[in-house]
Design goal:
By secondary structure, the chain is of the alpha+beta class. It is about 35% helix and about 30% strand. The protein contains four helices and five strands, in the order βααβββαβα. A hairpin with a 4-residue loop joins strand 3 and strand 4. The longest helix has 16 residues. The mean pLDDT is about 95.
Length: about 130
């Protein structure tokens, strides 16, 4: 079951989701650390959803909404733990209720292959240079 965590209850769920999200945060390119992600959720800059089976947290995802001129996107910032088609289907339904018409994420090659299995398409390759 997928559950949106109201930020008022972040302290209660954080011990269960932090290790899962930490693995995802470690793969970023220096954009932020786990404590900053927690603060972003706490202050409303991102939403936290958890996937649980028999009251055991099995996965977590953080989402930021981006409003483009032509559509609203649910941007997956970090995803950790288990990933299943059922989990992603529930996530899609939740994102639609929030007004999103597309899902998006930035990821490396291994996650690109994972998302392709679930019907996602590669749309861009991000390039970066330090100044």
């Amino acid at each position: 079951m997928l559950t949106h965590i109201d930020r008022r209850y972040l302290d209660q769920v954080w011990p269960a989701v932090a290790p899962m999200l930490a693995q995802a945060v470690e793969k970023n390119q220096g954009e932020g650390d786990l404590s900053q992600l927690r603060a972003q959720i706490a202050y409303g800059g991102a939403e936290l959803l958890v996937w649980s089976v028999d009251d055991e947290v099995r996965g977590a995802v953080t989402v930021e909404f981006k409003q483009y001129p032509n559509y609203r996107a649910a941007h997956i910032a970090y995803m950790g733990g288990e990933h299943h088609a059922e989990y992603l289907d529930e996530f899609k339904a939740w994102a639609r209720v929030q007004g999103a018409s597309v899902l998006e994420c930035l990821c490396g090659a291994s996650h690109e292959r994972l998302f392709h299995r679930y019907g996602w398409q590669t749309t861009y390759t991000m390039m970066r240079q330090s100044l």
